[in-house]
Amino acid sequence: MRQVFIGAVLVIAGIAAFIEAHEHRPEGSVGSFAPLSQRPSELSHTPYDLLRIGAWALVIVGALLVVTGLIQYWGAPLGR
Predict the structure, then answer these.
(1) Does 13 map to a domain?
(2) What pLDDT digit, counting tens, does each position of 33-42 carry?
(3) CB–CB of 52/18 below 8 Å?
(4) In 2-80, which ranges are E strands?
(5) Angle at the Cα of 71 from the Cα atoms of 65 and 76, rounded to 5 degrees
């Protein structure tokens, strides 16, 4: 069951990383409609891409942990 909770935490961390990447989108990205004075500090393209790749990795690994943990939990005997 611990595996399911760790996977859920990783998925939540990945979602938080997506939100953070969205807040610090590089200039010229699609959807950057706020004026320059109102936008938070921007990342350059490489750190932005790495943040998004890391976010995807967290979400995918977390989801796999949740699924495999639930499969193990479902197949375990009741007294365990």
Answers:
(1) yes
(2) 555 555 557 8
(3) yes
(4) none
(5) 125
Q: Is residue 60 part of a domain?
A: yes
Residue 80 placed within a domain: no
State the burial class of residue 34 (Cβ atoms within 10 Å of its Cβ: 0-12, 13-18, 19+). Answer: exposed
The number of distinct structural domains making up the chain is 1
What distance, in Å, lies between the first and last C-alpha atoms of the chain? 11
Planar angle of CA 75, 13, 67, nearest 5 degrees? 15
CB atoms within 10 A of CB 36: 8
What predicted TM-score, i.e. pTM, was given to this entire model? 0.76
Question: Measured between alpha carbons, how far is 33 from 24 in angstroms, rounded to an integer?
Answer: 13
- Owning domain of residue 50: 2-75
Reading the block at residue 60, the tokens are 């995918």
